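Ticket #4471: complex job returned nothing on first submit. Input attached below:
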Amino acid sequence: MHGAEGIETDVVVAHVETDDELLRVLAVFEERWLDNEGAERLTSEEFYGRYTAGEFDGPFGVAWATFYEAYLHMRGRIERIVPPAAFAAC
Amino acid sequence: MRRRRPPQSLEDYGFERTNQFHHFGAIVESPAAIYLGDWRVIVQCLLIFGQQQQAQLWIYEVVGIENDRATRTKYSYHLTYDGSFVFRYDRDQQHPDMVEHKHLPPDERRVPWDAVTLQEVVDEVVAFTAEREAEAVERHDGEE
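Support reply: We reran it on our side without changes. The output follows.
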């Protein structure tokens, strides 16, 4: 595929399918944040709490939040299909 | 009777959008479609406008299926010109008090704004770039 000015621009297509893959992506965001801000280590959960309160209103925050929401979504789906502990003895 | 358009899938959206990037008359860099399972697709790209490639529009969209239609649940259209921030349109359904808004200089201050389409943003970028280039020509002519 080529851009309007003839520069080759292959479209990258990627699939993130598991919560393990999402956790690896989230770890990259956490490290990138620490590298850029230095003083403050944030877990993705801590970040997201502050993001939904209105902080981190920029492209980096939006991207980080997208992957954390995907993680929550995927984890929620997994929790729904795992039998409750009460059934373990049945 | 017109047939209803079939529901648009995330795959359709990712494919069509990344192709559409090539129809804006810009240099297209780093187009990507990242599928988060079957829940969302992230579509991102850098479009470069201007004779000196001075206008750079960073596109980031998060798309899900809502009511059988591909819907941008988040977007971020961020423009710089000669390396300086010009504007950013944001949409995020998780934003606590302003789902859609625009950031402007100075300090990327946030103002309420209606939802925008990518075509509207590109039209604004093209007009902005043409205006700035015309000003540069006038300045250059005035100096001679």
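The mean pLDDT of chain B is 91. Closing as resolved unless it happens again.
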